[in-house]
Specification:
This is TBC1 domain family member 7. The chain is an all-alpha fold. It folds into 3 domains: 59 residues, Arc Repressor Mutant, subunit A; 50 residues, Ypt/Rab-GAP domain of gyp1p, domain 2 (Helicase, Ruva Protein, domain 3); 88 residues, Cyclin A, domain 1 (Orthogonal Bundle). The protein has 12 helices and no strands. Helix 7 packs across helix 11, helix 10 runs parallel beside helix 12 and helix 11 crosses helix 12. The longest helix has 21 residues.
Length: 234
């Protein structure tokens, strides 16, 4: 039996007995052993599979450019990053975009916007329009009902799209969403919002712990349905 056929046999066997993640974890470990990490392959892996929790922080840091692809540079770069964090935070406080009372998730957002030259003068983002577009495709009657009730403008867009569901979904579900965001697909946020509306209708803020994983799984299915699985979905 060839090595490829052995691997395929193991994959099928593990999946049948409920251990599909075993082969995925091994594949990721092989990618992480390279002296120079392959960003494209890590992106593709993150788009296709949930990241194992023990490697999530490292992969996120590499994909976000916080750490370089070369392992030997990680310690020195992290020292520079801590100094950079202090400088950027101080700058945001000086220009009064954040204060000591600002929620941490918003602080991180403002830091990213400042460094990338996208710090807004006013809050505006296109994701709410995309939400209406895909909700109309999935359930036009629900969208019509929300508009008739003047509820569309009252949806928690800041919580969903500016904070990327931080403080809305439990951590285990949130990590699966952020795997997609970090690897280049912010549009997954739209499909999580769509699935919340489809699942709970008007009660969008009452999300029980035991339903959140199902919502995220269905949202990822919607994302695949409408966007496919490109390495860098928008």
């Amino acid at each position: 039996m060839t090595e490829d056929s052995q691997r395929n046999f193991r994959s099928v066997y593990y999946e049948k007995v409920g251990f599909r993640g075993v082969e995925e974890k091994k594949s990721l470990e092989i990618l992480l052993k390279d002296d120079r990490l392959d960003i494209e392959k890590l992106c593709t892996f993150s788009q296709r599979f949930p990241l194992p929790s023990m490697y999530r922080a490292l992969v996120w840091k590499v994909l976000l450019g916080i750490l370089p692809p070369h392992h030997e540079s990680h310690a020195k770069v992290m020292t520079y990053r801590k100094e950079q964090y202090s400088d950027v935070l101080h700058a945001l406080k000086v220009i009064r975009f954040v204060s000591d009372a600002t929620p941490q998730v918003e602080v991180y957002l403002r830091m990213y916007q400042l460094e990338s030259g996208k710090l807004p003068r006013s809050s505006s983002f296109p994701l709410p329009k995309a939400l209406e577009q895909y909700l109309n495709l999935e359930d036009s009657r629900l969208l019509t009902h929300l508009k008739m009730c003047s509820a569309v403008s009252k949806l928690p867009y800041d919580l969903w799209f500016k904070r990327c569901f931080a403080g809305c979904l439990p951590e285990s579900s949130l990590q699966r969403v952020w795997d997609k965001v970090v690897s280049g697909s912010c549009k997954i946020l739209v499909f999580v919002a769509v699935e919340i509306l489809l699942t709970f209708k008007i009660k969008v803020m009452a999300i029980p712990q035991d339903s959140s994983d199902a919502i995220v799984s269905k949202a990822i299915d919607l994302w695949h349905k409408h966007c496919g699985t490109p390495v860098h979905s928008s």
